[in-house]
Amino acid sequence: MQTSRNPGIVRDIGEYKIQGLAIPYPEFVPRLYNLCLSLGFKKGFIMPSRAFCSDENQGFPIILITKHFGTFPFNHGRVGGIVAADRHGPHAHHGEDSVIVQASHVGYDPKTGIYGTCERPKTEGNCLTPSCGKISHTIEPYLEQYRFAQKRIFLHLDAQGRHLITAKDSFIDFASKPVTDGLVLDLREIAKINDDGKIIPVATHSTSHSYKVSESFRERLAQQDYVWKGGSGKAMGDLLTADLFYFREDLHEIDESILLERNLIEFMPIIVTHKSPPMKAAKINIQMEFARTVETIRRGTEYNGKNLLFIAGLNVDISSYDAFPSTTYFVPWAAHIQLKDSTSEEYIHPLEQEEIFKKLMEQSTVNPDQADLKEQISKMISAPRFDIRTPR
Questions:
Q1: What is the pLDDT of residue 213?
Q2: Which domain covers residue 145, as residue numbers?
Q3: pTM over the 0.85 mark
């Protein structure tokens, strides 16, 4: 059983900025390559790796990594942008120096500023679908529960002039019958608490209970100029904010992608209440994966004695428009750097967002070492045909 809230010490997520920090992939990858050289990585011996989702719109970033690093990147990821930490060893053995790029992705429409969908050019018509099907699939059950709760939790004035909240029993964590699966309304943030610490209903209905709200909650709504209504009142709707509920769930995923749901469950209330749940989920997953992967690198031995740059960020996918093809931007989050000779004080801690962005932007977008993929393919085509024999 997983819960999106635990008492005691609270874990938060960092402020992940996008505006002004998005780098087009044709600029990001050569800057990344040149950053590696500036750190002392050996030209011609750098083995890149990517932990991307498997969507087709992640293909051009992979091609650009191939072009600038001169080799197809190792596959270090699973759907949703999860890092396969058990692949550290194979990746480390494939090159003298190592680079890992981890990114979840989200679609973006620059005309509307809306995140979450992208165009599928290989389907007929103007087909728009969730930009990352795995992230959308993971958060959808929680979104459905939240949308249902928005319609089934009411605020109202009763005949005695009391300010009440009425909620379905399935949302209430009764001491005698706690919620075992689903959205839990945090009544301690809403209802009046007696001197003995109990929350006592003022009315019991066939499928719900009514409670008197606290003075602090009334003041909170008053600051929003909320107008209370009598009778059955009004559904909470958007007033059901992330701090007023949490989820208690058996995780839905059953394969290795359960890691994605584990990363998100704790922060699911702020995901489902966000104006762009897929974008918020992607940003949270990147932060959780970066922390987890750095830990596996530091505790492991696979990259000992090697130069390594691990960078995590958000891939922002923009569909084709007018005569321009689809493209992707990279928004860096953080980077872990270790150097085989001796890691300086500068890199003992990860580089945070502003720091790694600054380092990338200091690098040139010109890469004289980039591979000519067309020439390489032409050479493959013109190479002699070998006699591939059956072993005896």
A1: 97
A2: 141-249
A3: yes
